[in-house]
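ok, trying the design again with the full structure, not the truncated one.
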């Protein structure tokens, strides 16, 4: 059960990635390049730390199971 939050967020981000890409392409039709760049920076600034934290959470979970292989959580 400890992995549930990791997989939930991973699934959520996997679903949101195409939406963000479509948003950038939608901006290409209506907005300036500067606004597109700002949007890309905001999306990256939001995604990157969260993906890093998800990876660290996953490593922590794996470390727990390696240290406690017979735990019943």
């Amino acid at each position: 059960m400890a992995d549930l939050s990791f997989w939930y967020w991973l699934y959520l981000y996997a679903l949101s990635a195409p939406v963000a890409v479509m948003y950038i392409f939608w901006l290409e039709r209506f907005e300036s390049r500067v606004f597109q760049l700002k949007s890309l920076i905001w999306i990256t600034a939001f995604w990157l730390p969260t993906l890093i934290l998800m990876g660290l959470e996953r490593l922590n979970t794996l470390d727990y199971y390696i240290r406690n292989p017979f735990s019943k959580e």
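Keeping the full-length input from now on. Helices lie at 4-30, 33-67.
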